[in-house]
Design goal:
Layout: H1 2-39, H2 42-49, H3 65-75, E1 84-86, E2 95-99, E3 113-118, E4 123-129, H4 134-144, H5 148-173, H6 180-183, H7 192-222, H8 225-231, H9 258-265, E5 273-278, E6 287-292, E7 304-308, E8 315-319, H10 326-332, H11 334-339, H12 344-372, H13 387-418, H14 422-447
Antiparallel strand pairs: 1-2, 1-5, 2-3, 3-4, 5-6, 6-7, 7-8
Helix pairs in contact: 1-4, 1-5, 1-12, 2-4, 5-7, 7-12, 8-10
Length: 452
């Protein structure tokens, strides 16, 4: 009989932490969830809002990369730095050509020029800046709260707070083995507040594993130096294109074109899919060809890269993910796990639902708190008309839950498959813990003034 008495003060403390986090950061959690879930389908939404970006009837083979680049340079003759051609992922999509630092948005954190080109005709369709379209504006809101570098860091902190909030919520939910059945019930006949609370607990339980994973990977994406320090890897940040390799050949009158550079880059990876080609900048510039092998988990941002000298046509360096260390392989998983692409179309949809669930958790929790403060009144919930739809929704949630568990099991199998050996993986985890302790000790010594 003493165990519950000792447990009550601890539970009250966790309840306050959960409540204060919800009241102070809950709105931002909901905002991150909504914008993140929409961004899962950013490209599809952009094409829906801009029908001119969709090629209704593919018109034969693609034009050459050189002709596509020539069409872009004809429209933008005064932009002399490097361009990156991103190849379409379906026959109905466009080529997107990126210019990283246009003068119009030079002082913004990230606002490249996006030139959309029809790959079948080499026609320039649109010229847009990142952040000035609805989908890119929403993604900036998700990643940096429209507050540049400060917002970027703040989103990482929000990820940590969301993990704490989910952890405290799971602790508060746990009813013991005997009470699990009752804790999963939704009692809509007991009134609106009871219904909202039951919904809050059930949705929180179903989405907890995904939200914890999303919060953790989001934190790592905001602070990429942490996973690099833990894994002992460098240059593995999302969007990182590898080190800058200058040309050592003498400039001549017969430079290698884009099409030939791609052909040369395919030598080490003849079956790989072309994803990006970055043009040289200046006489010392070099081609950077980004490919995707079938073994790579990253769909849009794979790590297979070949650097080709435009003056000599020689391959200067190759980056092959198949030869990555266990730590580097783990680092490549952060982005596809956060976006859901690691688990295919079903994973993306479940990630979309998980993002939406944060908003439901915030609203249902806020409603209960307002009721406890006397700001709203309870009322009857009449589901007579909605009962068939509610039952159908419950069945859908159950099916999605089963798919989620299967996907998590698939994820474990994939991680085992991609890791060199389980034994080596344990070694990497041990190295992570050692590095984390070293980082914490160094930081503590700096604060104490023991290190200048």
């Amino acid at each position: 009989m003493q165990l519950p008495i000792k447990r009550l003060p601890v539970r009250a403390a966790w309840l306050k932490i959960h409540l204060y986090l919800a009241l102070s950061a809950g709105f931002f959690f909901a905002l991150m969830g909504l914008t993140g879930s929409i961004s899962v389908y950013r490209e599809e939404l952009d094409e829906l809002l801009n029908p001119q970006l969709v090629i209704e009837e593919p018109q034969g083979p693609y034009q050459s990369l050189d002709r596509i680049m020539a069409a872009v340079q004809a429209v933008h003759p005064d932009r002399y730095s490097s361009w990156t051609l991103e190849m379409p992922r379906s026959p109905h999509s466009m080529v997107t050509v990126w210019y990283d630092k246009p003068r119009e948005t030079f002082f913004e954190l990230y606002a490249p020029l996006m030139v959309t080109v029809n790959p079948y005709t080499a026609e320039v369709v649109t010229n847009r800046f990142w952040g000035q379209t609805l989908t890119t504006w929403l993604l900036d809101l998700h990643t940096q709260l429209q507050l540049a570098r400060f917002g970027w860091n703040a989103v990482g902190i929000l990820g940590l707070l969301l993990m704490i909030s989910m952890g405290t919520g799971l602790y508060l939910w746990w009813p013991g083995i005997a009470g699990i059945g009752a804790a999963l019930k939704i009692r809509h006949r007991a009134g609106m507040i009871r219904f909202a609370f039951d919904l809050h607990r059930l949705i929180g339980l179903l989405s907890a594993s995904v939200l914890l994973l999303l919060a953790f990977t989001g934190f790592l994406l905001s602070y990429p130096s942490i996973p690099e320090s833990l894994t002992g890897s460098t240059g593995m940040e999302h969007g990182e294109t590898g080190r800058n390799i200058p040309s050592t050949a003498i400039p001549n009158n017969h430079p290698v074109g884009l099409e030939l550079a791609e052909f040369i880059a395919r030598g080490p990876f003849p079956r790989a899919e072309l994803r990006r080609v970055t043009t040289p900048a200046g006489n010392a510039g070099i081609y950077r060809i980004n490919l995707r092998q079938d073994s790579e988990i990253n769909q849009r941002h794979p790590f297979t890269t070949v650097w080709v000298d435009r003056w000599s046509g020689h391959i200067k360096e190759v980056r092959n993910p198949a030869r990555f260390s266990a730590g580097e392989t783990i680092a490549t998983w952060i982005w596809p796990l956060h976006t859901g692409e690691a688990l295919g179309a079903t994973g993306r949809f479940l990630w979309f639902l998980a993002g939406q669930s944060v908003f439901v958790l915030y609203v249902s929790g806020l409603l209960r708190w307002l009721y406890s403060r006397g700001m709203v009144k309870d009322r009857e919930v009449n589901f007579a008309l909605l009962k068939p739809h509610v039952y159908r929704l419950i069945k859908t949630i159950r099916r999605m839950s089963l798919k989620l568990f299967r996907l998590m099991r698939l994820l474990v199998h994939k991680m085992i498959q991609y890791a060199p050996t389980i034994k080596k993986g344990y070694g990497v985890l041990a190295q992570w813990l050692q590095r984390m302790l070293l980082i914490m000790k160094t930081h503590r010594r700096k604060r104490l003034g023991k290190i200048n």
